[in-house]
Write a structure and sequence with these properties.
The protein is α/β, with parallel strands linked by helices. The protein has helices spanning 4-21, 27-42, 48-74, 101-116, 136-146, 163-176, 194-203, 218-238, and strands at residues 86-90, 94-95, 98-99, 121-125, 154-157, 185-190, 208-213.
């Protein structure tokens, strides 16, 4: 058998990548690990000229990933002086009627913000999926009020099914409440998601102020930072808000 070491390593990488990709929080990490496994298998078994092609394509893909990832990393923090009359808390999955890990991270960041700026109001934004026991907005409203946030400080947006709808529907609610998002509006979401959310908010006529929610599960954070590079590429290539 030729190149047994590379075969063994490729099999291990493909197995690890395949198993990891079965879990939503590891899908993109698993895909990357599996791709490396394919390269490890192919590289010693193809002609020299094809090795050069694979090498160039790999370098190009890594360079494109870095270029896309840099602004995502840059925006993965709370902006300086984030005070705003309104913040929008972008929804995440609800498990039954309880916040998922991602939603809990976002709610924790929002609670810190609302305690720091007691005059600000929050729009909790997110509809109800087919596997959710209540709307994302309702789950967030329940959690915030249980933590002592006054109900009159919380505005409900429970119809959206995408980030674009989260923002556009929430902007309409803020306008009806007398606010102006063009003067500044806080966007509370996971750190990896802030860049794309701010791009969408700007495209919809708002002045976004980033409020970063740290993703506590490290594997989830890495996985979704990888995903955001793919999503940012899609936004640029397709020319759509996504």
């Amino acid at each position: 058998m030729k190149h047994p070491a590379s075969l063994l390593l490729a099999v291990i990488l493909l197995l690890v990548g395949g198993v990891t990709a079965l879990f939503p929080m590891g899908r993109y990490i698993g895909g990357c690990v599996a791709a490396v496994g394919v390269l490890v298998f192919l590289f010693p078994r193809v002609p020299v000229w094809l090795r050069w092609v694979l090498g160039v394509l790999t370098v190009f893909a890594l360079a494109a990933f870095v270029i896309l990832e840099l602004p995502i990393l840059r925006d993965a923090r709370t902006d300086a002086d984030p005070k705003a009359d309104y913040i929008i808390i972008l929804g995440a999955q609800v498990r039954g009627t309880q916040p998922s890990w991602s939603m809990h991270d976002r709610l924790t960041a929002a609670l810190d913000y609302l305690n720091t700026y007691p005059e600000s109001k929050a729009v909790v934004s997110g509809g109800q999926g087919p596997d959710e026991g209540c709307s994302e907005a309702e789950a967030m409203q329940t959690w915030l009020t249980a933590q002592g946030v006054a109900p009159e400080r919380i505005l409900l947006e429970d119809r959206s099914e995408s980030t674009q709808e989260n923002l556009s529907n929430s902007f309409a609610i803020i306008a009806a409440d007398g606010g102006d998002v063009a003067e500044g509006v806080g966007i509370v979401t996971s750190e990896y998601h802030l860049h794309r959310a701010k791009l969408m908010a700007e495209a919809l006529g708002a002045k976004p102020i980033g409020v970063s929610a740290k993703t506590e599960l490290v594997i989830m954070r890495i996985n979704y930072f990888i995903r955001e590079a793919v999503a940012a590429a899609y936004m640029r290539v397709a020319g759509v808000l996504y």
